[in-house]
Design brief:
The chain contains five helices and four strands, in the order ααββββααα. By secondary structure, the protein is α+β, with helices and mostly antiparallel strands. The relative contact order is 0.16.
C-alpha cells in the first residue's frame, strides 16, 4: 500500500476517534437524567426537563419548549442556568434540572 493511502487511513482513524471522544454518542437520559424520562416535575406538570436518548427538552409550559440536542447548546444552557429561577423555578424539584443541565454543561454540551 502506498504512503498516501496509509496517510488517508491514519487521518480517518484519528477523525473517528475524536468523534467518539467528544460525546457523539451521549445518552442524555442515562448520562444526565438518572435514566428518568422527566425531572423537575412529572411529564404532565410544568415545568420539567424531558430526557430522551438523544435530546433534552426544557418544557416551561405546554407550548413553551427549549430543545437541546447535539453540539452547540452551551449558550442556551448558560442562559438558562444564569436565570434558572425564571426559567423553571416553580418545578417541584428544580435542583434536579439544574444538576442535569450543569452536568451537560461540564461535559462540553455534547
Amino acid at each position: 500500500m502506498g504512503g498516501t493511502a496509509m496517510r488517508i487511513r491514519l487521518i480517518l482513524l484519528v477523525a473517528a476517534s475524536l468523534t467518539l471522544s467528544t460525546g457523539a454518542f451521549a445518552n442524555y437520559k442515562k448520562d444526565y437524567c438518572g435514566n428518568q424520562d422527566y425531572i423537575g416535575n412529572t411529564g404532565a406538570k410544568y415545568p420539567h426537563l424531558h430526557c430522551g436518548k438523544s435530546f433534552f427538552t426544557l418544557s416551561r409550559a405546554a407550548r413553551n419548549h427549549i430543545n437541546f440536542n447535539g453540539r452547540g447548546n452551551c449558550n442556551k444552557v448558560n442562559e438558562i442556568l444564569a436565570d434558572h429561577q425564571n426559567q423553571y423555578g416553580s418545578a417541584t424539584n428544580p435542583a434536579a434540572i439544574t444538576t442535569a443541565l450543569t452536568a451537560y454543561q461540564q461535559a462540553g454540551c455534547p
